[in-house]
């Protein structure tokens, strides 16, 4: 994880387009300088975009599975519960306040269901993200979840806007 604070950019670069950072599967990023955070390949995975409306600190995590209890894996960002926890903690270290964080989520499609239990990974991921955010009293102010199509995300951290590009429709701004 890298915190984007603008320290590696020249002054002229900061005056033009914001920096862009790609968030891979089971990864997260936090920005304090208005960088645009992107992720793609969201099927049953969830993108959790958080934005502190007072400080502008923003973060994005791309989670794959509902809970860390389901596997023996050290990568917290892979899981809806632990990844969301980690993102909130890193944002607070960067200056965000839980009281001012808003969440936007996207993904959780029912692409392939091998569970046999009736609830696919996508549905379980959405439920776990909602539960985790609720435990921090962080409201979900917008979402684009479910369905059977993939998504890509662009978090414009200067405004907190989340642009969702869906495989079955045009861009949606949340």
CATH architecture: 2-Layer Sandwich
Approximate strand percentage: 25-35%
Count up the helices.
Answer: 3
> Do you know the CATH topology?
60s Ribosomal Protein L30, Chain: A
Through-space gap between termini:
25 Å
Catalogue the unreliable spans.
1-14
Compute the CA-based radius of gyration.
15 Å
- Largest sheet strand order: 1-3-6-5-7-8
- Helix and strand composition category: alpha/beta
Describe this protein with a few key phrases.
174 residues, alpha/beta, 60s Ribosomal Protein L30, Chain: A, 6-stranded mixed sheet, 5-stranded mixed sheet
What does this structure look like?
This protein is an alpha/beta fold and 174 residues long. It contains three helices and eleven strands, in the order βαβββββαβαββββ. The chain has one domain (17-173): 60s Ribosomal Protein L30, Chain: A (2-Layer Sandwich). The longest helix has 15 residues, at 121-135. Mean pLDDT is 87; it is low at 1-14.
Would you spell out the secondary-structure blueprint of this structure?
Blueprint: E1 3-4, H1 11-14, E2 20-22, E3 28-31, E4 36-42, E5 46-52, E6 58-63, H2 80-93, E7 101-107, H3 121-135, E8 140-145, E9 151-156, E10 161-166, E11 171-173
Parallel strand pairs: 1-3, 2-4, 7-8
Antiparallel strand pairs: 3-6, 4-9, 5-6, 5-7, 9-10, 10-11
Helix pairs in contact: 2-3
């Amino acid at each position: 994880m890298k915190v984007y604070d603008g320290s590696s950019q020249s002054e002229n670069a900061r005056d033009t387009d914001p920096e862009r950072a790609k968030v891979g599967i089971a990864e997260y990023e936090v920005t304090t300088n208005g960088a645009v955070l992107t992720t793609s390949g969201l099927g049953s995975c969830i993108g959790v975009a958080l934005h502190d409306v007072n400080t502008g600190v923003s973060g994005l995590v791309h989670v794959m599975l509902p809970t860390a209890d389901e596997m023996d894996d050290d990568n917290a960002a892979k899981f809806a519960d632990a990844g969301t926890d980690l993102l909130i903690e890193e944002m607070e270290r960067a200056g965000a306040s839980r009281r001012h964080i808003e969440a936007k989520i996207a993904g959780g499609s029912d692409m392939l269901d091998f569970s046999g239990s009736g609830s696919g990974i996508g549905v379980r991921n959405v439920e776990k993200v909602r539960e985790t955010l609720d435990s921090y009293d962080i409201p979900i102010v917008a979402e684009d979840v479910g369905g059977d199509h993939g998504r890509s995300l662009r978090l414009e951290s200067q405004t907190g806007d989340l642009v969702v590009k869906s495989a079955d429709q045009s861009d949606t701004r949340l």
